[in-house]
């Protein structure tokens, strides 16, 4: 069985700040790490590998530095790594990202199973997985909270719905995105670090794809455009009350009754 | 293609140039500046560059004929005909946008035996409701649902499509957006419309730390997902209006490689998401016993109790009651935070609340920036006093 896991490199902290006037992201502390949600995706694949003869490939689209997270995936037990890196991929939105990934994934034939994280901590859209499935024309199930069974033909999973939990059986090849508490991701192993030290990471660019039309990639292939980024608005309608306990409790009581919160 | 060109002759200090990019996308290697694939095309380098080193070269993007796409469509999310509140909230927003541009409002509903519930939509001022009623659509399965959505779009050609950020919506919207090779903006918190029918979409990213304003200028339809409780539902009208159109689709398109084997009801418990009033306990609460005071206040206000992550970690409250980025998002009428500092990850889950009261001893606590009423005081004094006031107020009444 072949499983491909999609992983993304994200800023090490989501506490980025935007300069109010210039709309510039302040760069303090922008070191990078693997998207934490993707650890659950990797763990899911590696658990399958412990049961079946499986080859796990980790794939990422990103700058050359994103090789770091492929190395990390090796240390968790991935067998192979691919990085899709090309200046022409710059400025990709979800559509262009999913298209680029689908080109990279399908290059050697569609794997039996593709696993994505539920979302990322930066773009935070949770859309890339389903869009990859569409481009590959395979079924997908989003937000899987349990993998119940896997055969060479099917995967049986538990899907979280608002009021119910559904058990569905999906014919392979398929794509799933996994919920964050599906498992407990393992830590990178020192043994695997040594074992994978010399293992190459395959680097692919647009020239390696079957579709080489530049208009389908990067900014050109992105229908959405970010016009502006800015800090979230602070709530400007606020009062601060100070005083004795009796005063404060009394004022709050009055306000709550005025606003009709005490009439039930 | 659109790209950024470096004019090497104008470079004075290469290191300064490298620092212009917040994403580390400018390399200086072997005395040569270049832009690598980390570039997000954000163009900040152009804005900050004072020496004319960078130049942006625009390329011709494909254009759509926007006049061929008309109307604002809402995807009707439901469970066995029980329509989710987010659908009505989206109808309210769609009508507001449609009024500005003179477009009709459409609803798309798919499922099995749904005609009666579809009729309910006619009380909300929608122009036309399209229903696809098939046994194959009884349960959500991605391929037939996408096929029906595609059929609807090809038939109706709506300019904008709003989808609730529910489990189904978040799975279906990207799939159908990709099928039309168009843009989808996730979890919008503000939506407005331009005279040329471009949607102005504003959404939080980076866990709510930044807001992004997004357009889909050259593609139609333009898709947006919106979560529950962001917009307001219109009043239900006594009379019904608009058309109900039953649509047909070739059964071959409803095939699926997914089999639904079991549907198990989740234990329904009164959660914090639907609460009108919420009392939040933070780490200002020192001991497990002290939660009783919070519980008592909640009972008097008919409120649900919730906690910050730090409080949940003590084990004094069910993790399902955590508010915030890694917990639930709430939007009650009233929320009273007790001993909560107001970390951004917490605030992200509650800043849409109607009326926010914060009690904290520390006047500098960030929560006061988000509260409508900030009470500088000790919860161990204020809450018992308030409880006493409420109780005696009740006595006066009865
Ligand atoms: C502030 C901001 C707001 C944005 N809003 C939108 C928007 O509303 N619509 C839009 O189309 N684009 C948007 N974008 C662009 C978009 O977020 C990213 O550019 C896109 O590349 C990835 O989307 P994501 O991070 O949301 O991934 P998600 O869809 O949240 O990621 C889900 C999963 O897909 C996989 N995955 C995602 N990216 C990669 C990758 N590069 N390599 C390998 N696997 C990957 C991972 O398994 C991940 O767990 C926004 C960008 C920013 C900075
Ligand atoms: C990735 C990530 C995700 C996170 N997700 C969440 C999330 O979903 N939800 C969440 O809540 N947090 C989340 N956090 C944690 C968050 O950053 C804060 O640590 C947390 O919200 C703080 O909880 P607190 O306000 O209860 O505690 P503290 O920050 O310790 O604040 C306690 C406050 O109580 C006040 N106080 C003390 N004694 C009294 C008294 N007697 N009377 C009145 N006031 C008093 C203090 O002045 C202080 O302001 C997340 C963090 C990360 C990194
Ligand atoms: S466009 Fe933005 S990401 Fe690209 S090089 Fe300039 S500053 Fe860096």
Detail the topology: elements first, then pairings:
The complex is a heterodimer of chains A (264) and B (398).
Chain A: E1 2-6, E2 9-11, E3 32-34, H1 36-49, E4 55-61, H2 67-76, E5 80-84, H3 94-106, E6 113-117, H4 128-136, E7 140-150, E8 154-160, E9 164-171, E10 174-178, H5 190-196, E11 202-204, E12 225-230, E13 239-241, H6 245-258
Parallel strand pairs in A: 1-4, 1-6, 4-5, 5-11, 6-10, 7-10
Antiparallel strand pairs in A: 2-3, 7-8, 8-9
Helix pairs in contact in A: 2-5, 3-4
Chain B: E1 3-6, H1 14-19, E2 26-29, E3 32-35, H2 44-48, E4 54-57, E5 72-75, E6 78-79, E7 82-83, H3 85-101, E8 105-111, H4 115-121, E9 128-133, H5 142-156, E10 160-164, H6 167-179, E11 184-185, E12 190-193, E13 199-205, E14 210-215, E15 222-226, E16 243-246, E17 258-265, E18 277-281, H7 291-300, E19 304-307, H8 309-313, E20 334-338, H9 344-347, E21 355-360, H10 367-370, E22 373-376, H11 379-397
Parallel strand pairs in B: 5-8, 5-10, 8-9, 9-16, 10-15, 11-15, 18-19, 18-20, 20-21, 21-22
Antiparallel strand pairs in B: 1-4, 2-3, 6-7, 12-13, 13-14
Helix pairs in contact in B: 5-6, 7-11
What's the CATH superfamily of the largest domain in chain B, by name? HUPs
User: CATH architecture of the largest domain in chain B, please?
Assistant: 3-Layer(aba) Sandwich
Shape of chain A: globular
The percent of residues in helical segments of chain B reads: 25-40%
Distance between the termini of chain A: 60 Å
Cα-atom radius of gyration of chain B: 26 Å
Mean pLDDT of chain A: 90
CATH class identity of the largest domain in chain B: Alpha Beta
Low-confidence stretches of chain B: none
Largest β-sheet summary of chain B = 7 strands, parallel
How many separate domains of chain A? 1
Instruction: Give the count of helical stretches of chain B.
Output: 11
**What is the CATH fold-level name of chain A?**
Rossmann fold
The CATH architecture designation of chain A is: 3-Layer(aba) Sandwich
Strands of the widest sheet of chain A, in order across it, are: 9-8-7-10-6-1-4-5-11
Could you tell me the CATH topology label of the largest domain in chain B.
Answer: Rossmann fold
Overall SS class of chain A: alpha/beta
Helix percent of chain A reads: 25-40%
Largest interface: A-B, 100 and 107 residues
Count the helices of chain A. How many? 6
């Amino acid at each position: 069985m072949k499983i491909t896991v999609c992983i993304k490199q994200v800023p090490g902290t989501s506490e980025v700040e935007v300069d109010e006037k210039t709309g510039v992201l302040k760069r303090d502390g922008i070191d990078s790490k693997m998207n934490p949600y993707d650890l659950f995706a990797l763990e899911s694949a590696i658990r399958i590998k412990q049961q079946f003869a499986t080859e796990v490939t980790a794939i990422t689209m990103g700058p050359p530095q994103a090789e770091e997270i492929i190395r990390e995936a090796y240390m968790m037990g991935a067998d192979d790594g691919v990085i899709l890196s090309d200046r022409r991929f710059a400025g990709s939105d979800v559509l262009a990202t999913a298209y680029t990934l689908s080109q990279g994934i399908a290059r050697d034939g569609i794997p039996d199973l593709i696993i994505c994280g539920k979302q990322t901590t930066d773009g935070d859209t949770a859309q890339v997985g389903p869009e990859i499935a569409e481009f590959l024309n395979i079924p997908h199930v989003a937000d899987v909270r349990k993998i119940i069974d896997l055969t060479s033909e099917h995967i049986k999973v538990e899907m979280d719905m608002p009021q119910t939990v559904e058990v569905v059986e999906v014919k392979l090849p398929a794509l799933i995105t996994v919920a964050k508490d599906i498992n407990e991701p393992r830590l990178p192993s020192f043994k695997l670090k040594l074992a994978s030290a010399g293992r190459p990471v395959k680097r692919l660019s647009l020239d390696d794809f079957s579709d080489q039309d530049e208009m389908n990639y990067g900014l050109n292939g992105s229908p959405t455009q970010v016009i502006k980024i800015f800090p979230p608005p602070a709530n400007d309608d606020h009062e601060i009350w100070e005083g004795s306990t009796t005063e404060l409790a009394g004022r709050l009581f009055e306000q709550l009754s005025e606003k009709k919160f005490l009439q039930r | 293609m659109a790209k950024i060109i470096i004019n090497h002759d104008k470079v004075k200090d290469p290191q300064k140039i490298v620092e212009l990019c917040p994403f580390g996308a400018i390399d200086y290697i072997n005395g040569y500046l270049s832009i690598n694939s980390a570039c997000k095309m954000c163009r900040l380098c152009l804005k900050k560059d004072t020496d004319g080193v960078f130049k942006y070269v625009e390329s011709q993007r494909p254009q759509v004929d926007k006049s061929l796409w008309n109307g604002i469509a809402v995807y009707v999310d439901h469970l066995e005909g029980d329509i989710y509140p987010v659908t009505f909230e989206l109808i309210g927003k769609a009508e507001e946008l449609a009024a500005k541009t003179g477009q009709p409002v459409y609803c798309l509903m798919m499922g099995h035996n749904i005609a009666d519930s579809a009729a309910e939509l006619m009380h909300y001022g929608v122009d036309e409701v399209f229903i696809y009623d098939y046994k194959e659509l009884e349960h959500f399965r991605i391929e037939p649902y996408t096929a029906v959505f595609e059929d609807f779009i090809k038939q109706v050609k709506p300019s904008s499509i709003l989808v609730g950020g529910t489990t189904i919506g978040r799975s279906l919207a990207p799939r159908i957006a990709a099928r039309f090779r168009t843009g989808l903006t996730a979890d919008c918190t503000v939506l407005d419309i331009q005279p040329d029918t471009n949607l102005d979409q504003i959404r939080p990213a980076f866990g709510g730390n930044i807001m992004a304003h997004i357009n889909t200028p050259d593609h139609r339809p333009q898709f947006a997902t919106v979560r529950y409780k962001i917009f307001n539902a219109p009043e239900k009208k006594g009379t019904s209006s608009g058309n109900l159109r039953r649509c047909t689709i070739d059964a071959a398109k409803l095939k699926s490689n997914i089999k639904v084997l079991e549907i198990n009801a989740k234990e329904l418990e009164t959660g914090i998401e639907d609460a009108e009033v919420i009392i939040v306990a933070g780490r200002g609460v020192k001991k497990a016993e002290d939660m009783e005071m919070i519980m008592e206040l909640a009972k008097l206000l008919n409120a649900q109790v919730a906690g910050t992550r730090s409080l949940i970690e003590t084990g004094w409250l069910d993790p399902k009651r955590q508010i915030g980025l890694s917990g639930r998002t709430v939007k009650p009428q009233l929320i009273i935070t007790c001993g909560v500092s107001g970390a951004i990850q917490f605030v992200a889950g509650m800043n849409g609340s109607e009326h926010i009261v914060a009690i904290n001893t520390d006047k500098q606590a960030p929560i006061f920036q988000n509260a409508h009423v900030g009470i500088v005081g000790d919860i161990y004094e204020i809450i018992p006093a308030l409880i006493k006031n409420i109780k005696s107020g009740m006595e006066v009444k009865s």
